[in-house]
Specification:
232 residues; alpha+beta; Nucleoside Triphosphate Pyrophosphohydrolase; eight-stranded mixed sheet; three-stranded antiparallel sheet; 11 strands; 30% strand
Length: 232
């Protein structure tokens, strides 16, 4: 039997943060350092591989390849990460914060091609505006998507055309905020009699709500993997 998905992650209390871990230093939050570090990412592996390999999670689903684009934007204050908020009516991941991305298609030459195609379809980001720095080790979601994060540097004058069916809005978050573990919250929940955890990284406030953009789940886990890569 497949396990139910978490519908309201805010309902689970914060059990702690990772303030005991140091933030990534400013010198490592540069395109040059990122390019060099990502080149060795697959040798180092992923700190968080995901839950998709667990036999009791959606065993009826066949693992499927997917990619996301981790878009980094150079600003005067440093690199920012471009994220999206999914529309509220979607069947899967409604209202969640995510990277542009999706399932691989037969015509995609590789994981990079998938990420660039999906980013173009979802937010209208032209592939020629993306300088691909490399790929990170895969993260397998609970729904058994084997996701390759593709890290790319965007031109700061990029323009977007959002797919109104899938994407409610796009926004930027300073990379320095996301690479500071004091901003990484831990939540616990019970699943099948076992205690499980997930991370969240609330940022800013959603228009008209006063609540933070609640970055959590696979997106937060992949950002945490980037933290481990840059901090080692």
């Amino acid at each position: 039997m497949s396990r139910p998905l978490i519908r309201d992650p805010r309902a689970f209390p914060v059990t702690g943060t990772d303030a005991h871990l140091p933030p990534v230093s400013a010198e490592r939050l540069s395109a040059a350092w990122l390019r060099e570090r990502i080149a060795s990412a697959h040798e180092r592996g992923a700190a968080i591989e995901g839950d998709g390999g667990r036999a009791d999670y959606f065993p009826e689903r066949t693992p499927a390849a997917a990619s996301v684009l981790v878009p980094l934007v150079p600003r005067a204050s440093g690199l920012h990460v471009l994220l999206t908020r999914r529309t509220a009516h979607l069947r899967d991941h409604a209202g969640q914060i995510s990277f542009p991305g999706g399932k691989a298609e037969p015509e995609d030459a590789n994981a990079v091609a998938t990420a660039l195609r999906e980013a173009c379809e979802e937010v209208g980001l032209a592939p020629e505006l993306v300088d691909v720095l490399g790929t990170l080790p895969t993260y397998t979601t609970v729904t058994r998507f084997v996701v390759t994060p593709v890290v790319g540097l965007l031109r700061p004058d990029y323009t977007l055309i959002l797919d109104a069916h899938e994407v409610a809005e796009a926004f930027e978050v300073p990379l320095s905020f996301l690479m500071t573990p004091a901003n990484h919250q831990r939540h616990e929940f019970d699943m099948g009699g076992a205690t499980r955890q997930f991370l969240s990284m609330p940022w800013g406030a959603e228009p008209g709500s006063g609540d933070a953009y609640f970055i959590w789940g696979a997106t937060a886990a992949m950002l945490r993997n980037l933290y481990h890569l840059l901090s080692e």
